[in-house]
Amino acid sequence: MQAIDSESLSEFMNRFVSFYDAIIRQIQHRYLPRTQQTTIILSTRDQNSEQLWSNVTLVATVVSEVLFRECKSTRVILSDGLTLKWLDSRLWCDFSPYCSDAPETQDDFRRSDFYLICEELSWVAEPYCE
User: Given 3-state DSSP classes, what are the helix, strand and coil percentages for the chain, each rounded to the nearest 5?
Assistant: First the structure.
């Protein structure tokens, strides 16, 4: 797995076209001794894949907040993509922005129906499959 840091974030997002229209395949949240971990598997466009799509596994560790709320519309498809931003040495991840503008502040992220905050985020891309 590759870790996402402030230097690799832009390249990561560009490779996967900011996860616009990605499909969530699986979410797993685990309570571990002294920490929490969230694993999310998505099918997404991949500019480095001959298939044009890959399955990407994101593993967030040292998770301090997570919210996943299904409302009138589903969160299965990331119609507005994924927003990642480093704030106060933590990575804020918004999978369902509440508006079309990218969240900028902690309050903006917390308005989302699906977000998480972690200290580390790692990823791996594998060939696309359903």
Answer: 10, 50, 40
Burial class (CB in 10 A: 0-12, 13-18, 19+), 121: buried
Q: Could you tell me what percent of the chain has a pLDDT over 90?
A: 58
CA 39 to chain centre: 9
The pLDDT value recorded for residue 99 is 55
d(CA 108, CA 94): 9
CB within 8 Å of 51: residues ≥ 6 apart: 127, 128
Q: Write out the DSSP string of 66-105.
A: EEE---SS-SSEETT--EEEEETTEEEEESS-SSSSPP-S
List pLDDT tens digits, range 8-28. 999 999 999 999 999 999 999
Question: For the range 68-75, what are the long-range contacts, defined as Cβ-Cβ under 8 Å and sequence gap of 24 or more?
Answer: 68/27, 68/113, 68/114, 69/113, 69/114, 70/113, 71/113, 75/24, 75/113, 75/114
Q: What is the pTM of this model?
A: 0.88
